[in-house]
Write a structure and sequence with these properties.
This protein has 166 residues and is mostly helical. α1 runs parallel beside α4, α4 packs antiparallel against α5 and α5 runs antiparallel to α6. The longest helix is centred in the last third of the chain and has 28 residues.
């Protein structure tokens, strides 16, 4: 793989890509508020990571997918598949933005299960679309998709453990 130098325009696009991605996470966290009390109060499975892991992992993932979006977008929106790939990326970010408030702020665990499944579907589609345009971008999206797959299992298990018998 050949590494190309990027010009000022490309560097600005990289920064914008990173800001959009990381900004999504930061805005979601701001809307959600402090999830510590809600997370501590939940019954969690034995495979649930400690609370400090989540912000670290999500920060790294948002950086990786921001770089992936840059790699796809630098091909130009007029190239075949780029607009569609970036559309699915946007859908993935939008869905991801709302998961934390749904789960932590509003405590809608059943809806959070459905929502995380939608994120996983969007992430899989985005990974494939990115891979088809730029293999490195697809590879950079794989950890996000894998983490969302894990989050799907974790969210479903937490919902199951904390459901109210009626």
């Amino acid at each position: 793989m050949m590494i190309r130098a990027i010009n000022v325009k490309q560097f600005k696009f990289l920064l914008v890509s990173l800001l959009i991605s990381i900004g999504t996470g930061l805005l979601s966290a701001a809307v959600t508020g402090d999830p510590s009390a809600a997370y501590q109060a939940l019954q969690k499975p034995s495979f649930s990571p400690p609370q400090w892991v989540f912000p670290v992992v999500w920060t790294v993932l948002f950086i990786l997918i921001g770089i992936a979006a840059y790699l796809v977008g630098r091909n130009g929106r007029e190239k075949p598949g780029v607009r569609e790939a970036l559309f699915y990326y946007g859908v993935t970010l939008l869905l991801t933005f709302f998961w934390s408030p749904i789960f932590f702020r509003w405590g809608l665990y059943g809806l959070a299960v459905i929502w995380v499944i939608l994120i996983l579907i969007a992430a899989i589609i985005t990974t494939i679309k990115f891979w088809n345009i730029n293999r490195a971008a697809g590879i950079l999206f794989v950890p996000f998709t894998a983490w969302v797959a894990f989050a799907t299992v974790l969210t479903t298990t937490i919902w199951w453990l904390n459901r109210v018998n009626g």
